[in-house]
Write a structure and sequence with these properties.
Layout: H1 3-9, E1 15-22, H2 23-33, E2 53-58, E3 63-69, E4 72-73, E5 79-85, H3 86-91, E6 103-109, H4 110-120, E7 132-133
Parallel strand pairs: 2-7
Antiparallel strand pairs: 1-5, 1-6, 2-3, 3-4
Helix pairs in contact: 1-4
InterPro entries: 5'-Nucleotdase_C (IPR008334), 5'-Nucleotdase_C_sf (IPR036907)
Pfam family, one: 5_nucleotid_C
GO biological process, one term: nucleotide catabolic process
Length: about 130
């Protein structure tokens, strides 16, 4: 996978925002990223992009089955940080549990960061079943 491949996934050079949220909010954000509200027959590949989390989603029940960060289950009252593009916070169309008031840090355009990521770490999809859908 190349920086160009990643740029096709994120074609707009938006700013990154880091938000502070509870575990309950993080679970809601992952539900939002399931795209369950978009269309019932969305292909399996249609799921928001996540990193640093173990996620198992049940398509048939539109349910989050497993969610962990750093190997530990997400606790509803624990604080977590979540990085996303500013657009999702401005529009409240995709991430409904967090908003501009939850921002704790900001970073310039995503394309330089994506290019750095693509050239510094492996971007291959895990094959060990660490994330999946049922």
């Amino acid at each position: 996978m190349t920086a160009f491949d990643l740029r096709r996934v994120a074609p707009f050079d938006d700013e990154f925002r880091v938000v502070s949220c509870t575990g309950a909010d993080l679970r809601a954000a992952v539900h939002d990223l399931s795209l369950a509200d978009v269309c019932a027959d969305a292909p399996e590949a249609c799921f928001g992009h996540v990193s640093g989390m173990h996620v198992v989603w049940d398509d048939d029940r539109s349910t989050l089955c497993e969610l962990s960060v750093g190997g530990d289950p997400v606790a509803p009252d624990q604080e977590y940080t979540l990085a996303t593009v500013a657009y999702f916070l401005r529009t409240n169309r995709r991430l409904t549990a967090v908003g501009p008031g939850d921002v704790v840090d900001s970073y310039a355009g995503e394309h330089p960061l994506v290019a750095t990521l693509a050239t510094s770490v492996s971007t291959r999809r895990p094959t060990d079943g660490s994330n999946g859908r049922r």
